[in-house]
């Protein structure tokens, strides 16, 4: 192996590359670690200065996240007798009683419905549109593609007021359907453009072979194009889900009661009690679905990033 | 199997004329080979017959039935593409079974297994049946795509230079195999190639295309022995026909501008003296490169020739072909 091999890295190069990766990992992971840790701190530890790195973990934040509590007089507490569960015990320390569940579960479910619903719709419509743009002679194809892309040329929130008015007129305000449609509308340009790139890379010969083999165009699309576009579909789905899942501004503006998603809800947990652990707990749980989804599709995502970059 | 008739087919892509007024009848059970250089319209002809593309004008009839408006599936044709187009997400077995599982054929699984097994045997890919299509070598891939055609019994097999990516040995074997399939199973084939050995050995009919026009159509011997033009004459024959000024030898008919001499149509030891420039010993025969009045001429002689560069050999035409200035045959 020569000193100037382009394939094998020297130990020094490996060391530098390794350190850079570690440094980058620390920078990105540190805030996440902090959030996860804060979720297990007591409110006092959470705001302690200097910050506590070593602390006694407690589930207080999670209990507070999922419950609403009210202050009880010592006399009332007397009459209630000893706490009958571990979470009761946590709450009683502060002279409180659990008065009911919080709305976090509901908001979380809304996020799941709206996030995955709009992701499915964006990818479904995007795949069909991308296929048509890739394969057929669509009149004004370039103009249409530019038009679709142009919806991304400003921050979506710039059109908040017209959308707000439209939603009010159409009765879509604070509905799951309204939010799914809105996020789909924002994501569809990304979805069409990304998927068109992937489908362009799939040679037409495959479909032609399938047409000759006795299949209709739609069957050829389903049996031959879709399996080969799986990589592109997976990476597009991840991008769409991350946007819809994390979207905050429209959610604040357009939802309040029934269809409110978790992002606008989580900050309201803080209430008057400066309950940072509960906020951190809510955020931690909120991170999990996207993480699981991304890890599930990770294999595709890795291929997706390099796909299309390599000309055969 | 059925006879296929092309009537006055024309097709243009933008300003490029790919096919212009082509008519031919492919009889049932025939092996028709289309010859022509790149861009002559060979592949376009296949695509129009297959239904992957619609002609601008003209009609295609398969088995006496008008096929112009039908989809490829309805026409019941197979096609082997020049670039192997195996479905990369499937195994070899599934690739071969794919046409049999189509909604049109809906073959029972035991019948599929039998036919796939038989075709895999013929093409010698039986040991690769459970491999992913992407794990094959180029030659294996092309055999699988030929196999995907052979599992069916279509009206016509369309093949676009199917053997061009294979090595010489396999190509020779598959030539015989394809010919056997046509002869024994009565299959009809329309076959595109620019390999003249394939054309001469397999074809029952040869069609020569030039810039989208069908210039000659007939049995390979007829096309070889009496080409209608210099262009057709250069399409068949290896080494190529020698095209020389007609005046180089005496006896040219009036109007002839070019004399076409196939290498084997040159008599040695009489006529004009030519200089031997190069000698190529091929084992079974020897090619002589001669120079006569500044023109290169290639001819054949026996394997054990004693001639060497610098020697002189007298040559005279035997059964020459004459062409006018436009390249049309005059005698």
Automatic annotation (TrEMBL), chain A:
Protein name: ABC transporter permease subunit
Top-level taxon in the UniProt lineage: Bacteria
Entry's localization field: Cell membrane
Entry GO terms, CC: plasma membrane
Domain ABC transmembrane type-1: 108-297
BP-aspect Gene Ontology terms: transmembrane transport
Alphabetical UniProt keywords: Cell membrane, Membrane, Transmembrane, Transmembrane helix, Transport
Membrane-crossing residue ranges in chain numbering: 15-37, 108-132, 144-165, 177-195, 224-245, 276-297
Topology term for the membrane: Multi-pass membrane protein
Family indicated by similarity: Belongs to the binding-protein-dependent transport system permease family.
InterPro entries: BP-dep_ABC_trans_perm, MetI-like, MetI-like_sf
PANTHER family: ABC TRANSPORTER PERMEASE PROTEIN, MALTOSE TRANSPORT SYSTEM PERMEASE-RELATED
Keyword Transport: yes
Automatic annotation (TrEMBL), chain B:
Start and end residues of each ABC transporter domain: 4-236
Statement: the UniProt record of this protein carries the keyword RNA-binding: no
Keywords, sorted A to Z: ATP-binding, Nucleotide-binding, Transport
A single GO cellular-component term on record: ATP-binding cassette (ABC) transporter complex, substrate-binding subunit-containing
SUPFAM superfamilies: MOP-like, P-loop containing nucleoside triphosphate hydrolases
Entries under InterPro entries matching the protein: AAA+_ATPase, ABC_transporter-like_ATP-bd, ABC_transporter-like_CS, ABC_transpr_MalK/UgpC-like, Mo/tungstate-bd_C_term_dom, NA-bd_OB-fold, P-loop_NTPase, Transp-assoc_OB_typ2
Isomerase in keyword set: no
GO MF annotation list: ABC-type transporter activity; ATP binding; ATP hydrolysis activity
The family this protein is said to belong to: Belongs to the ABC transporter superfamily.
PANTHER family noted in UniProt: MALTODEXTRIN IMPORT ATP-BINDING PROTEIN MSMX, OSMOPROTECTIVE COMPOUNDS UPTAKE ATP-BINDING PROTEIN GGTA
Protein name in the entry: ATP-binding cassette domain-containing protein
Source organism: Pseudooceanicola pacificus
């Amino acid at each position: 192996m020569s000193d100037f091999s382009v394939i094998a890295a020297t130990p020094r190069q490996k060391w530098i590359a390794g350190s850079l990766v570690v440094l980058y990992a620390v920078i990105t992971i540190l805030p996440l670690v902090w959030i996860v840790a804060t979720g297990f701190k007591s409110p006092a530890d959470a705001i302690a200065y200097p910050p506590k790195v070593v602390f006694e973990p407690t589930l207080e934040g999670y209990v507070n996240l999922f419950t609403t509590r009210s202050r009880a007089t010592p006399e009332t507490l007397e009459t209630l007798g000893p706490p009958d569960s571990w979470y009761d015990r946590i709450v009683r320390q502060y002279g409180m009683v659990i008065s009911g569940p919080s709305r976090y579960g509901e908001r979380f479910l809304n996020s799941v419905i709206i996030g995955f619903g709009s992701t499915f719709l964006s990818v479904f419509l995007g795949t069909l549109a991308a296929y048509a743009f890739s394969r057929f002679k669509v009149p004004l194809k370039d103009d249409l593609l530019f038009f679709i892309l142009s919806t991304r040329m400003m921050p979506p929130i710039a059109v908040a007021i017209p959308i707000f008015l439209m939603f009010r007129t159409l009765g879509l305000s604070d509905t799951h359907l309204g939010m799914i449609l809105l996020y789909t509308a924002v994501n569809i340009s990304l979805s069409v453009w990304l998927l068109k790139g992937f489908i362009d890379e799939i040679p037409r010969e495959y479909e032609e072979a399938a047409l000759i083999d006795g299949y209709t165009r739609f069957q050829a699309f389903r049996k031959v194009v879709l399996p080969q576009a799986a990589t592109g579909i997976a990476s597009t789905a991840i991008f769409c889900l991350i946007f819809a899942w994390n979207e905050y501004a429209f959610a604040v503006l357009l939802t309040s009661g029934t269809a409110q998603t978790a992002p606008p809800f989580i900050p309201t947990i803080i209430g008057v009690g400066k309950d940072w652990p509960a906020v951190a707990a809510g955020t931690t749980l909120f991170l999990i679905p996207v993480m699981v989804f991304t890890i599930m599709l990770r294999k595709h995502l890795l291929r997706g990033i390099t796909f299309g970059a390599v000309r055969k | 199997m059925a006879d296929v008739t092309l009537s006055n087919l024309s097709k243009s892509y933008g300003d490029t004329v790919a096919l212009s007024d082509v008519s031919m009848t492919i009889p049932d059970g025939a092996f028709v080979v289309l010859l022509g250089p790149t861009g002559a319209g060979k592949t376009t002809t296949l695509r129009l017959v297959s239904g992957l593309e619609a002609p601008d004008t003209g009609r295609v009839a398969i088995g006496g039935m008008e096929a112009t408006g039908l989809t490829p599936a309805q026409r019941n044709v197979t096609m082997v593409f020049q670039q192997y187009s195996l479905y990369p997400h499937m195994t070899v077995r599934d690739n071969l079974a794919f046409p049999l599982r189509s909604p049109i054929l809906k073959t029972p699984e035991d019948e599929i297994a039998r036919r796939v097994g038989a075709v895999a045997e013929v093409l010698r890919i039986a040991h690769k049946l459970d491999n992913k299509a992407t794990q094959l070598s180029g030659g294996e891939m092309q055999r699988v795509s030929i196999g995907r055609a052979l599992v069916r019994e279509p009206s016509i097999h369309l093949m676009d230079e199917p053997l061009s990516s294979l090595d010489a040995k396999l190509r020779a074997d598959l030539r015989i195999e394809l010919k056997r399939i046509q002869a024994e199973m009565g299959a009809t084939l329309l076959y595109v190639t620019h390999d003249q050995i394939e054309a001469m050995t397999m074809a029952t009919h040869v069609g020569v295309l030039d810039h989208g026009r069908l210039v000659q159509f007939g049995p390979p011997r007829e096309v070889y022995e009496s080409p209608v033009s210099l262009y057709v004459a250069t399409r068949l024959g290896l080494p190529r026909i020698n095209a020389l000024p007609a005046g180089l030898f005496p006896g040219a008919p009036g109007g002839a501008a070019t004399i076409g001499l196939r290498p084997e149509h040159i008599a040695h030891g009489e006529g004009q003296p030519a200089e031997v420039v190069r000698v190529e010993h091929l084992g079974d025969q020897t090619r002589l490169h001669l120079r006569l009045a500044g023109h290169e001429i290639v001819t054949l002689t026996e394997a054990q020739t004693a001639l060497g560069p610098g020697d002189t050999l007298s040559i005279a035409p035997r059964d020459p072909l004459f062409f006018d200035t436009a390249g049309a045959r005059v005698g």
